[in-house]
Amino acid sequence: MDESIRVAIANGIDPIMAIQMATINTAQCTGLADRGGIAPGLKADFLLVDDLEQFSVNQTFINGQKVAASGEYLLTTEDSVTGFDDLLQTVHLDTFTAHQLKLNLTSDKTHVIGLQSISRTQNLVLPVAHTADGDFQYHPDEDIAKVAVVERHHLTGNVGVGLLNGFGIKNGAIATSIGHDSHNLVVVGTNDADMVVAIEALKESQGGGVAVQDGQVIATLPFVIGGLMSNEPIDTLIEHQKAFNAICHDKLHVTAHFDPIMKLGAMPLDVIPNLRITDKGLVDVTKFEIIDINA
């Protein structure tokens, strides 16, 4: 939400109005009567910022208690999390092969998911190179990579495959078990072999994030609880995530403007326009229809 406020201010909205839109307006719209402003009887959840124009968060308070300052989490945490044994085996997947990633391109132009700095995506129609049998051919000079969503809950074998523009990846593959809202496996890559290694690594680790280069796993970010949550202490997790992101940015050349796991995790979110991908295929959100990749 703080990033949304910054975007609104940068586009000319008065800072106070932008803050109102993100706080009390939202709380009233969603029926959250106990929050959204600073007043007697409301939850004391608020931020202190350095300035209204940049909206740089200096301190964070929850229930009146300061929990973070200058980018550091202040509270103590438990060293381990227990009691979730039934949520430690949630990636259910048969052997995964490159054949399941094959595209059948028959047109000179295809629908491509275009990433934007905000949560929306574009439905781009772009020319892409493909093999004689219709599979996608990656070219490093063109910022288009293959993306797939693999069903991981019920062994259905469903795999949706599409193309993604704007991720910036130049080699290898990245996969995650976070994929709102169904949380299937999401993988993006420049070649099928590395994408398969990434999916198999997620199956082995039972969730999280995986980065692969030249057939080797070069970084992991384990989320063992349901494939969505970590059992590491928060300070350890933060450093772990920073290291994972650095490898994705430095070695695989993922665009530095966003967190690769966060951005990949939103690709299946088929309620936000314009073009998304699920294990059933490409979804044109504006039409609420599954569409063919060929334009």
Give a structural overview:
- There is one protein chain.
- The protein is α+β, with helices and mostly antiparallel strands and 295 residues long.
- Helix content is 20%, strand content 26%.
- The strands form 3 sheets. An 8-stranded mixed beta sheet has the order 6-5-8-7-10-9-11-12, sandwiched between helices. The chain has a 4-stranded antiparallel beta sheet with strand order 1-2-3-4, with no helix packed on it. A 3-stranded antiparallel beta sheet has the order 13-14-15, with no helix packed on it.
- Helix 1 runs antiparallel to helix 2 (15-22).
- The two termini are 35 Å apart.
Q: Count of helical segments?
A: 6
Strand order of the largest sheet: 6-5-8-7-10-9-11-12
Largest sheet: 8 strands, mixed
Shape: globular
Q: What percent of the residues sit in helical stretches (DSSP H or I)? A: 10-25%
Estimated radius of gyration: 21 Å
Q: Strand tally, please?
A: 15
Q: pLDDT average, as an integer?
A: 94
- The sequence of SSEs as H and E is HHHEEEEEEEEEEHEEHHEEE
Category by helix and strand content: alpha+beta
